């Protein structure tokens, strides 16, 4: 590795570790590289590269998906999903923990953001689980672990970013993440079932009948149409991901403003402002990451990585194993968006060169990086759940360990069985 490349990466990592926001750390790394190499003529091009990194029609889907999720959250539509999950899963031993995971699966089809899941459902389930006798740490562990299903089930913001960075079809990625997301949810439910028998967790006592199930499903159907609209529009060739996001926003606005009347016109300013801030936080990372990737390209990092993978002659499975370990470590210290922007194109190209299907590798990478949201020192989902539960980080880490292991087991299963990821895309001709 050249001295200039060492300066680029070291400056970025050092600034991230000391707490500078990721976007500015990326930009500072580029600036350090320019000053070290003396190539001051590239300074005027930095702003252009940042703008070009964000100036993508595909990336316009990000603020639209975020806005749709904010409208759903503010419109209290989640209450209907929680009741439906209660009817479906509450009869099991450990019912409220099962409902927590089931609601995350349903809710993830609307927001596609892990922290959105915790913000909307954590404040509902953590106090309710504690009231029913679960420890605060266990309630927080279930909530944090189930939140990583959000970026797997369409619409997934991470899939949009990964597809736009690597050139892989976003429609194929969204289809490919659907079954793996359900596999992760099922694995977590099986774990809760085992723990429930061991610790005699209670069921959720409530009336259940076919009529109640149908009524609950009918109430949940309206918000659950959002992912259906998005997937059907994209798969049917009627809409691009960005256009599907716009239609989903219009649908969510109509439901919250007119059908349920849970959002009033004066509230829209606050909803749009929150969506704009969150979108800006994501897109500035994308832009600064594009400038950083541009410099890595000038340092020939893609070619060096490709040559290294070819020279090692590791084959399909060993390459996948090593890349999984790399992504797990990166996910522990850097947020998924940044890792995808910086390393997604490099690792995807190298994986393809090693004979790994790029869509399958994308699914494995997305799940892998989101597991990092449950591990210190980054662990943003872990910290968000702890903030709601107030249980202490040590207790939460102990309660979360079985969930972390079951998520890694699901990751290994998905890595070894590419058909789980590729079956749906192949049915639609990808």
UniProtKB/TrEMBL annotation:
Membrane topology recorded in Swiss-Prot or TrEMBL: Multi-pass membrane protein
GO molecular-function terms, A-Z: transmembrane transporter activity
Location of the TRAP C4-dicarboxylate transport system permease DctM subunit domain: 10-419
Broad class of where this protein is predominantly found: membrane
Localization annotation: Cell inner membrane
Superkingdom of source: Bacteria
Keywords on record: Cell inner membrane, Cell membrane, Membrane, Transmembrane, Transmembrane helix, Transport
Entry annotated with the keyword Transport: yes
Residue ranges crossing the lipid bilayer per the database entry: 6-36, 57-73, 101-126, 168-191, 212-238, 244-263, 275-297, 317-347, 359-385, 405-424
Claim: Transmembrane helix is one of the keywords in the record: yes
GO cellular component, one term: plasma membrane
Subunit and interaction comment: The complex comprises the extracytoplasmic solute receptor protein and the two transmembrane proteins.
Summary of the function given for this chain in its UniProt record: Part of the tripartite ATP-independent periplasmic (TRAP) transport system.
Similarity remark: Belongs to the TRAP transporter large permease family.
Name of protein: TRAP transporter large permease protein
């Amino acid at each position: 590795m050249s001295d200039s490349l060492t300066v680029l990466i070291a400056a970025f990592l050092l600034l991230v570790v000391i707490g500078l926001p990721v976007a500015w750390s990326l930009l500072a790394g580029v600036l350090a590289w320019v000053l070290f190499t003396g190539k001051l003529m590239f300074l005027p091009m930095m702003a252009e590269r940042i703008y070009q990194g964000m100036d993508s029609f595909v990336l316009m889907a990000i603020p639209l998906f975020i806005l749709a999720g904010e409208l759903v959250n503010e419109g209290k539509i989640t209450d209907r999903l929680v009741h439906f999950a209660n009817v479906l899963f509450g009869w099991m031993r450990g019912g409220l923990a099962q409902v927590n995971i089931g609601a995350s699966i349903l809710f993830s089809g609307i927001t596609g953001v892990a922290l959105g899941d915790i913000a909307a459902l954590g404040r509902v389930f953590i106090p309710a689980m504690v009231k029913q006798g679960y420890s605060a740490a266990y309630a927080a562990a279930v909530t944090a672990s189930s939140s990583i299903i959000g970026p797997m089930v369409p619409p997934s913001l991470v899939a949009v970013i990964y597809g736009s960075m690597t050139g892989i079809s976003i429609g194929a990625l969204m289809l490919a993440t659907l079954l793996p997301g359900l596999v992760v949810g099922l694995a977590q439910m099986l774990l809760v079932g085992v723990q429930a028998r061991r610790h005699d967790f209670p069921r959720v006592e409530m009336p259940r009948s076919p009529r109640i199930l149908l009524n609950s499903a009918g109430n949940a159907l309206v918000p659950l149409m959002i992912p259906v609209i998005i997937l059907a529009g994209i798969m049917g060739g009627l809409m691009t991901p960005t256009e599907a996001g716009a239609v989903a926003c219009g649908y969510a606005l109509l439901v919250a403003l007119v059908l349920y009347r849970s959002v009033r016109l004066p509230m829209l300013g606050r909803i749009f402002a929150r969506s704009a801030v969150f979108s800006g936080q994501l897109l500035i990372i994308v832009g600064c990451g594009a400038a950083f990737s541009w410099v890595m390209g000038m340092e020939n990092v893609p070619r060096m990585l490709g040559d290294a993978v070819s020279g090692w002659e590791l084959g399909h499975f060993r390459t996948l194993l090593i890349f999984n370990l790399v992504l797990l470590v990166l996910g522990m210290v850097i947020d998924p968006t940044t890792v995808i922007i910086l390393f997604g194109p490099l690792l995807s190209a190298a994986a393809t060169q090693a004979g790994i299907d790029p869509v399958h590798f994308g699914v494995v990478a997305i799940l892998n990086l989101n597991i990092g949201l449950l591990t210190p020192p980054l662990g943003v989902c872990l910290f968000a759940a702890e903030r709601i539960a107030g249980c202490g980080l040590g207790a939460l880490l102990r309660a979360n360990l079985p969930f972390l292991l079951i998520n890694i087991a699901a990751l290994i299963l998905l890595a070894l069985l590419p058909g789980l990821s590729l079956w749906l895309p192949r049915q639609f001709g990808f």
